[in-house]
Amino acid sequence: MSVKELGSCNDDGEVKLEEVKEEDFGKSMTSGRDGWTLDELVPITVPISCKVPQHVVIFMRTIERLMATQGMGALEFGVFLKGKFQDGVLNVDADHQFIPQQKVSGVTVDFEEDPPTPDFNGVIHRHPTGCKSFSGTDSQHINRNFEFSLLYEGNDIIKGIINVKCSDIRIQLPLNIEVQYPVFNIENQDLIFKKIQRNSAMMSSSKSSIQKDFQSFGRIPFTNKLLTDGLDDDDGLGTLPFDEPIQDSDGSDREEYKDEFDGDLYICRYCGEPNVVSEFPHVCDSCNMVLGGDDDAEEILDITDLEPDIQQKALEKISDHKSSDKE
Known about the structure:
This protein is an alpha+beta fold. It has helices spanning 54-69, 136-141, 189-195, 200-203, 207-216, 225-228, 252-258, 308-326, and strands at residues 4-9, 15-19, 48-53, 78-86, 89-98, 102-104, 109-111, 122-126, 148-153, 156-166, 169-180, 220-223, 237-240, 264-268, 274-277, 282-283, 290-291, 297-299.
């Protein structure tokens, strides 16, 4: 019996079957067919790529820090942006940000001023409370009124949506945020690689052997993306040096020093430096990042568990805070 494949149907409803040739076995029915792919209308996929210049992130951090210094660190705020959606990618403008007149609280932003020009088609607003999703109020009063909307939280842009027009309706689609960092234009690249060369002997070490070496020197895990970049850890867990504590402690000493000043001791997850925090949000004393809570800072339960140099810094912070409290 010969093998048949389904062919075309004529005007009388009769289906014409054609015998499959031996050279066609294993081939896709659609491969090599002229005109089968419509190249002019390639569908986009979700989430849609959104490229945001680092300048926008720095701008938001600057306003956030200024608000924190004026006792407004726990409030939301919003900024109008420009962006262009082309070839399935949303590119946010690096050079234009507009702060409109607005009334803000810890959970809402009420804009009292329209965008100055129609090309301000996007908005970004800040969540100071650690909420990493758009609220119902955001969806009703912010997201639906702009072509695109971004959410800033924890010193970074974490979420976004875009409204795409389709016939007489708009479809809201998620954005995949990609922060674009500036890159220097280096003319003499050959000179760079003459100075920076690969150590072949070290490259032969496996990941497991590196981890074993770290463990053998008494290291403890510490979650900090900035401090552990390059350790090739998929889950962001790296290691920091750890020496034995100066003295054993059951934690009772923490209560002793805590009673002597107003605040708690935290380690900034961005720079690894200690901070005395009376309340969140708090601007890190070392890196100026705005710490919104446990996601940005780790509470120190026992200062003797710290490395000696960090322990010394922590004691100095406590001493400085005591002095300022007395003043």
